[in-house]
Amino acid sequence: PQLVRLADYRPSDFLIDTVDLDVNLDPHATRVTARLKVRPNPEGRENAALALDGDELKLVSVAIDGAELEADAIEVSPERLSIANPPRGPFELTIVTKIDPTANTRLMGLYRSNASYTTQCEAEGFRRITYFLDRPDVLAVYTTRIEGPTDETPLLLSNGNLMETGPAGRGRSYAVWHDPHPKPSYLFALVAGDLAKVSDTFVTLSGRTVAVEVFVEHGKEDRAPYALDAIKRSMRWDEEVFGREYDLDVFMVVAVSHFNMGAMENKGLNVFNDKYVLASPETATDGDYANIEAIIAHEYFHNWTGNRITCRDWFQLCLKEGLTVFRDQEFTSDTRSRPVKRIQDVRALRAAQFAEDSGPLAHPVRPQAYAEINNFYTPTVYEKGAEVIRMLKVLIGPEAFKAGMDLYFDRHDGQACTIEQFIACFAEVSGRDLGQFMLWYHQAGTPEVTIRTAYDAAAKTFTVTAAQRVPATPGQPTKQPAVVPMVTGLVGPDGADMPLVIAGAPAGPVFALTEAETTLVFEQVPVRPAASLFRNFSAPVKLSTDLTDDDLLFLAKSDSDPFNRWQAGQTVALRNLVARVDAQRAGAPAPEEPRLAEAVARAFDPSETDHAFAAQVAALPSEGDVAREIGEDVDPDAIHAARAALKLDLARRLAGPLAAAFERLVDEGPYSPDAASASRRALKISALDYLAAGGAPDGVARAKALYDGATNMTDRIMALQVLSLSASDARDAALADFHDRYKSDPLLIDKWFLIQASAPLPDTLDRVRALMTTPAFDIRNPNRVRSLVGAFGSGNPTQFNRADGLGYAFVAEVARELNGTNPQVAARLLGAFKTWRALEPVRRGKAEAALRAVAAAPGLSPDVGDIVRRALG
Ligand code: B3K
Ligand code: ZN
């Protein structure tokens, strides 16, 4: 396969200053006329040919300055339009193409679903609309005229501000949009259809009134207000925290039902998967509300980090994505609970990014080469990319960080930039050499930090020795030590932080580990402290320490850092789970850790008022967490059994307090999605989950009662989730009831799919296969595929990893089926295999066989081919 390499970057030979698009909509024969003002790039090669990108395009005609080009002046294929001798000065290039939006099942470029038209252009979808210099460093001002049948597409939207609209004759209408901000083609968007508008206004910091509009299917208007409000809150927050104001007259969000991902930040016209817009108490869970808020914020924040300042090339993807994730995390932290948000983000980082980083798909935050860019929209680029920025802030401090951001916005507004340009802003304002810091962008793999501690009672010193090692990853056999900020506290027996003194002077709390081994000798330490290391998860590393369970249980109670209070309990639980897995595989009795019950009991104590934090404390490490801790020769069944046994053990020890908590936390009054109410429900469900552990009849009865009496979707789905973990009549009855109630709502059927696909039960695979044949399933709709097949592959460790290999074969089979129609979704499904090499030999063999079968299939798309090739490494 052809690799694109960062090292081969060179500026475009031509620039495009303006784009005048005329899109004449037709279900099968949409005609696109692009009038481009082109000029040679002074930084490009002289006398170069003009080579435009295409993808499955049909050229109708091409003209320069009004004169149509003869066939011998051009070279044309569906993938390329090349003009050997274009004028050496500015010229106007007019290209007419014809496309079939109905046949576009890849959902890239312009596609039609449910009678409306939508575009998706990132990363390389604009070339499926017209031949273009489809690269992010070519910035143009777009004017777009759309014309379509008035009955089918009364609504015609594109980027920027609406200039004109009216009838176009023969039952058709048109609209003209103009976006004054130069942008790369990946931010172009067009939407046409018959949708309802829910709108509001926002007055910016400088007093401009902006229209804020959310478009949804008719009849779903009552599910739009939460997203609308989230937009306004995001706008305000970006003004207050980053000093960034919105820059057009209108900001639009359109909810669509067929979408390959979560959402897309097209300039002024964000397109969203309807799953991340639509919410009402009866249809959305607390988790849905939180996701909507975060994704609305994320896409809105892209307006500055991504759109105003964009990426020079796709290797710089983390420049916009890591930074924008960092910004949305901060928004949520300010809006909800900061410590709980941090815990949730770290859980997600470990589950997705650490897993990726430890397997064959590991790659640097800024990759060096790719075969298919769509496969690099990964947790590494996004979530680790955000961690890198968070570390930068810890290392240089919040004031310098803010000054660096301001400088970045100031200096690079309107440009297509690199990571080096971004980092240079922070180096400049802080006066720091960030050379070593750049390794976070270059080196793949999760650094492993090992801590040894020693207390010298006579000398009153406490020594912390930190060794770091970055493991080898594909293509990177050897690594250098990174700069790892370790935020540290020494907690005394009274629970208070001791002053940190090194070499006679106050020190810390941020210690930058820059060598393979770093030793810190803390002085004037009157008694042996418990070391609280990497507070607030100050670096994305895998930590192992010589702290005892006693130390950890003490920190779980007393650490002033909430993250480490949570982490300490998790570490004790994880140690116990690993010991249980070992014992089980050795046929030995399960090792118990009764003190864990004390820690969990605190979460359910009436005196605990931070319910969201308590719910995090109560939640055991996931099966994936245990698998990663074990690292190799992983047996998912043993892990599941060990975790179920620990849960049951805790449930038995805490039966009284759990039941009391469940009753105390029952909702009163009408549903509200606010953080405090959601937290209460989260803790309530956590209690219920324990109460029903092992299928305990009393717990199952409570879950059934909660399900039957639910007045909101959170209670209903959570009760169903609890019921679905074990085979029972109550489970089957509730599943049947849920289907009957919500069968007309695809987003709710997705929840129903997901719950069944994630159940750790031996008949799950058969059930998933059967569900795929029902009318509710539609392989052309990515949400359906993700809820059923994606959830099975990535959310069901025991059944995907069935010892007979049928789980692997199933996911591989669906990926092959989708390979031709929607390669992006197909490639995503195969992400389920990202840790296959860590499995025990039998499963490893079966997983490999399934991957090899895909690799050997004819006609693999670049997306699927790239993933299987790398997965097989
Ligand atoms: N930038 C888009 C993702 C595009 C994915 C293209 N395969 C959404 C986001 O990150 O905000
Ligand atoms: Zn993004």
UniProtKB/TrEMBL annotation:
Keyword Glycoprotein: no
Co-factor requirement: Zn(2+)
GO terms of molecular function: alanyl aminopeptidase activity; metallopeptidase activity; zinc ion binding
E.C. number: 3.4.11.2
Keyword flag Ligase: no
Gene3D superfamilies reported for this sequence: 2.60.40.1840, 3.30.2010.30, Neutral Protease Domain 2, Peptidase M1, alanyl aminopeptidase, C-terminal domain, tricorn interacting facor f3 domain
Start and end residues of each Peptidase M1 alanyl aminopeptidase C-terminal domain: 549-872
Domain Peptidase M1 membrane alanine aminopeptidase: 226-438
Record-linked InterPro entries: Aminopeptidase_N-like_N, Aminopeptidase_N-like_N_sf, PepN_Ig-like_sf, Peptidase_M1, Peptidase_M1_dom, Peptidase_M1_pepN, Peptidase_M1_pepN_C, Peptidase_M1_pepN_C_sf
Domain Peptidase M1 alanyl aminopeptidase Ig-like fold: 445-545
Sorted UniProt keywords: Aminopeptidase, Hydrolase, Metal-binding, Metalloprotease, Protease, Zinc
UniProt GO BP: proteolysis
Domain of life, per lineage: Bacteria
Family: Belongs to the peptidase M1 family.
Protein name: Aminopeptidase N
Signal peptide start-end: none
Reactions catalysed, as given in the entry: Release of an N-terminal amino acid, Xaa-|-Yaa- from a peptide, amide or arylamide. Xaa is preferably Ala, but may be most amino acids including Pro (slow action). When a terminal hydrophobic residue is followed by a prolyl residue, the two may be released as an intact Xaa-Pro dipeptide
Domain Aminopeptidase N-like N-terminal, residue spans: 20-187
UniProt cross-references to Pfam families, sorted A to Z: DUF3458, DUF3458_C, Peptidase_M1, Peptidase_M1_N
Entries under SUPFAM superfamilies matching the protein: Leukotriene A4 hydrolase N-terminal domain, Metalloproteases ('zincins'), catalytic domain
